[in-house]
Amino acid sequence: MEYVIEMNNIRKEFPGIVANDNITLQVKKGEIHALLGENGAGKSTLMNVLFGLYQPEKGEIKVNGQPVKITDPNVANRLGIGMVHQHFMLVHNFTVTENIILGSEPTKGGKINIKDAAKKVEELSKRYGLSVDPYAKIEDISVGMQQRVEILKTLYRGAEILIFDEPTAVLTPQEIKELIQIMGKLVAEGKSIILITHKLKEIMEVCDRCTVIRKGKGIGTVEVSETDPDQLAALMVGREVHFKVDKKEAQPTDVVLEVKDLVVIDSRNIPVVEGLNLEVKAGEILGIAGVDGNGQTELIEGITGLRKIKSGSVKINGKETAHLSSRKITETGVGHIPEDRHKHGLVLDYTIGENMVLQTYYQKPYSNSGVLSYNKIYEKAKSLIEEYDVRTPSEFTPARALSGGNQQKGIIAREVDRSPSLLIASQPTRGLDVGAIEFIHSKLVEERDKGRAVLLVSFELDEVMNLSDRIAVIYEGKIVAIVDPKETSEQELGLLMAGGKKESVGVS
Amino acid sequence: MQKLLKNQRLFNIVVPLFSILLGILVGAIIMLISGYDPVSGYEALFNGMFGSPKSIGEMIRAASPLILAGLAVGFAFKTGLFNIGVEGQLLVGWLAAVYVGYTLDLPAIIHVPVSILAAAIAGGIWGMIPGFLKARFKVHEVIVTIMLNYIALYSTADIIKRYLYAGNEKSFPIKESASLASTFLADMTEGSRLHWGIVVAILVAIIMWFILEKTTTGYELKAVGYNQHASMYAGMNVQKNIVLSMTISGAFAGIAGSMDALGTFQNMTVMSAFTGTGFDGIAVALLGSNNPFGIILAALLFGGLTTAAPQMNFNANVPQELVDVIIALIIFFVAASYLIRYILTRFSKEGK
Ligand SMILES: Nc1ncnc2c1ncn2[C@@H]1O[C@H](COP(=O)(O)OP(=O)(O)OP(=O)(O)O)[C@@H](O)[C@H]1O
Ligand SMILES: [Mg+2]
């Protein structure tokens, strides 16, 4: 009976949907407790209730055995509850320290005392091995570092219970390893952690217990030591899940995408894609493997016209597209699942239905001489929502109100449905549950078998290895090797990604 | 109540109504404190607005340019832009309408639309400038529009003095054929200055609704306002849309100017200060939740308050300034709608 957190029979409703239906979650002191469930199962909602962002319709919350009412995040902070949101809430042109003290600025005679605060931040950072520079500006540090700033923010406020909402979805494999170490240090100091993740491997590796929810209902809590990934997956989805993609041998035909000597510069005017060459054929999935920051983002933005190309050529179906507008490029038959769904993928204030026609709204039948046909738009949206199992109360719900994974499924539905001759998928399964990943993978293979060219970018080596017919390794803005996934290992791939040479493979 | 609060659309109606109520309430308290009788004060105000056909006519007349100014602000706002330059766009529109109304010789059926069109074009160009500067050089539209207000104020005054001066600080009047004035409407309202402008204003409100809610152009304009990155991803031309939005907004403001030019005054005065209509437009748009039909209602209220203020002064001795205070209070409470939202939520919780 030494629970630090007890959430008993919590119920939370949204218009048209019961997000949490009688869920119970009990967290022991000093444990890492996993919260597992499909996209839209209600995990984020439950945590937002615990953090005081939502008020539950029913149920009670106890902290250290005491019944409490958490009316807003300040109350949560006072109770020692801190939350690291999936989408960070940092002020970009402020320093790390300024962000951390924002809202509870320490003052000395009416003046903000940055020095002392920075010192405290540094101490905390050392103690938990975060290695964050208190004076760095947020806009200059990586996503992984920003996440650590969020962690520091909660620690600075004296959090004893930390909630992490899908922290690893945005991290590179190396950063994930480091985060796991940090979490170890936190629990060693007596903190308790609630971790939301869709990656069963992570749960097996770091968590003590796991609570599973399905469609808003609590399914139960299991000891991680007494379970395995298959059982966890079956518990959350309600059926068995195949982790391995089955696909036939690829039948590549004509070249669809041909990139030659491509140079793209980033926002600081530094060339990040430096003379890159690449070919993707119809009927194959080409996976790009590489450590984050080796030019993947800029390569994709260059191909899709979102970023200006310095020099070189990009041909799609034999047509030069290097300096065309994004609209023209899309119209030559390109679909693009963007890396950042909130930045590029969705207009969050539009309904999910309106978002489904973001690339086609100006065409028939969705509009007619400039006048939108909402009937046709929502008809289409409805069928896509069904086909891709996007869990939403209706097609008229604002995209903002969908769970992260369901937003992603909406984007994938939109892009794949047009069946473009070149489909670019950047981190397509980021934030998706294992069931959804299985479905999306089979969709990508289906597109390949229809004779489309698929260009896949992913930090998940598993995904690249499983899905690709050929793997191109990107390093410092160039493709340094092309390997056959059947004849390589994760180790070898890792070595190539770190800049190691390989003799026997030809560079295209 | 709980159900009601969940409905965003209903909330957009409840909040302004509640703000108006609060404004009236606090206004009453102020009247009491300053020694006036709020009951007779509000009675006079009400009579000033609805007491006679003439007062209703005057209310609608005063509302016409306010509707258009509110639409201009609301249109820009719905596409993520803040057009503080409605005042300037209104002034150049006014001048353009007077110029065309005075110089051209056309049958009324053509002369009126052409004059209104001239006002729309002048206002549109005046709005396009800040739109272009924002799209091309990322200069914030608020700063440019404020500057352009002053440029409009002084250059219209100068142009009248040089080219259209009829003496007595006034321009030449427009020709009969360009006038929106109507003896029919005036007779119907027993001698008010009501003119056909209200029809124009309602038409423009419908046009705004249609553009924003029904067309691909509106879809693009709103998307750019919400998320430029996603708009770019979707192949929209972000720059073009920013310029277009400010141009349309400016055109609406220009038409607001033509209401005074072709309707109420039939000429233009050499202004030494702003008319204030452009700025009231911001409040009207806010009170009307940037919704075309909400804006019409809000403008009627504002128009009514302005035309009835002298009544309140005359019949109940309440000074004109106090009416301004009440208007300001209503604006304040709308702007503080977060506060009102909070109060309403509290009420509904306790009521349950
Ligand atoms: N603010 C909101 N308004 C309306 N509905 C919402 C809101 N937030 C969440 N929902 C709905 O509640 C349900 C649960 O959403 P929640 O974000 O908790 O899912 P999740 O388990 O975190 O999923 P994911 O793994 O995809 O992040 C979803 O159906 C979602 O559409
Ligand atoms: Mg979530």
UniProtKB/TrEMBL annotation, chain A:
<comment type="similarity">
    <text>Belongs to the ABC transporter superfamily.</text>
</comment>
<dbReference type="InterPro" id="IPR003439">
    <property type="entry name" value="ABC_transporter-like_ATP-bd"/>
</dbReference>
<dbReference type="Pfam" id="PF00005">
    <property type="entry name" value="ABC_tran"/>
</dbReference>
<keyword id="KW-0677">Repeat</keyword>
<dbReference type="GO" id="GO:0016887">
    <property type="term" value="F:ATP hydrolysis activity"/>
</dbReference>
<dbReference type="GO" id="GO:0005524">
    <property type="term" value="F:ATP binding"/>
</dbReference>
<keyword id="KW-0472">Membrane</keyword>
<keyword id="KW-0547">Nucleotide-binding</keyword>
<keyword id="KW-0067">ATP-binding</keyword>
<protein>
    <submittedName>
        <fullName>ABC transporter ATP-binding protein</fullName>
    </submittedName>
</protein>
<dbReference type="InterPro" id="IPR027417">
    <property type="entry name" value="P-loop_NTPase"/>
</dbReference>
<keyword id="KW-1278">Translocase</keyword>
<dbReference type="GO" id="GO:0005886">
    <property type="term" value="C:plasma membrane"/>
</dbReference>
<keyword id="KW-0813">Transport</keyword>
<feature type="domain" description="ABC transporter">
    <location>
        <begin position="5"/>
        <end position="240"/>
    </location>
</feature>
<dbReference type="InterPro" id="IPR017871">
    <property type="entry name" value="ABC_transporter-like_CS"/>
</dbReference>
<dbReference type="InterPro" id="IPR050107">
    <property type="entry name" value="ABC_carbohydrate_import_ATPase"/>
</dbReference>
<feature type="domain" description="ABC transporter">
    <location>
        <begin position="257"/>
        <end position="501"/>
    </location>
</feature>
<dbReference type="InterPro" id="IPR003593">
    <property type="entry name" value="AAA+_ATPase"/>
</dbReference>
<keyword id="KW-1003">Cell membrane</keyword>
Automatic annotation (TrEMBL), chain B:
<dbReference type="InterPro" id="IPR001851">
    <property type="entry name" value="ABC_transp_permease"/>
</dbReference>
<feature type="transmembrane region" description="Helical">
    <location>
        <begin position="141"/>
        <end position="160"/>
    </location>
</feature>
<keyword id="KW-1133">Transmembrane helix</keyword>
<keyword id="KW-0472">Membrane</keyword>
<feature type="transmembrane region" description="Helical">
    <location>
        <begin position="12"/>
        <end position="36"/>
    </location>
</feature>
<dbReference type="Pfam" id="PF02653">
    <property type="entry name" value="BPD_transp_2"/>
</dbReference>
<keyword id="KW-0812">Transmembrane</keyword>
<feature type="transmembrane region" description="Helical">
    <location>
        <begin position="84"/>
        <end position="102"/>
    </location>
</feature>
<dbReference type="GO" id="GO:0005886">
    <property type="term" value="C:plasma membrane"/>
</dbReference>
<protein>
    <submittedName>
        <fullName>ABC transporter permease</fullName>
    </submittedName>
</protein>
<keyword id="KW-1003">Cell membrane</keyword>
<feature type="transmembrane region" description="Helical">
    <location>
        <begin position="325"/>
        <end position="344"/>
    </location>
</feature>
<feature type="transmembrane region" description="Helical">
    <location>
        <begin position="56"/>
        <end position="77"/>
    </location>
</feature>
<feature type="transmembrane region" description="Helical">
    <location>
        <begin position="108"/>
        <end position="129"/>
    </location>
</feature>
<feature type="transmembrane region" description="Helical">
    <location>
        <begin position="268"/>
        <end position="287"/>
    </location>
</feature>
<dbReference type="GO" id="GO:0022857">
    <property type="term" value="F:transmembrane transporter activity"/>
</dbReference>
<feature type="transmembrane region" description="Helical">
    <location>
        <begin position="242"/>
        <end position="262"/>
    </location>
</feature>
<feature type="transmembrane region" description="Helical">
    <location>
        <begin position="294"/>
        <end position="313"/>
    </location>
</feature>
<feature type="transmembrane region" description="Helical">
    <location>
        <begin position="194"/>
        <end position="212"/>
    </location>
</feature>
